[in-house]
Give the backbone structure.
Amino acid sequence: MLLVIDVGNSNIVLGIYDGEALVRHWRIATDKSRTSDEYGVMLNSLFSLATLSFTQVKAIIISSVVPPLTGVLESLCRDFFALPPYVVGPGI
């Protein structure tokens, strides 16, 4: 499965894809003061409620217009999913 993370100024939209099918999606408030651990705990709760596991995620893509959160979410991906995210930015 693919985890996609779209970081906007007001909300972070997350989606889980199995192939081309969107399995589940969530919208959470963007908060630049949250740590990667706080986002990890929040994602763990969302995944649990959807009966999904972090181990099911095989790739992650991040798109962000909030530069201070990009590094936080990259840490989240490495620490909680053991995956390096592909970060989409200008020029890609």
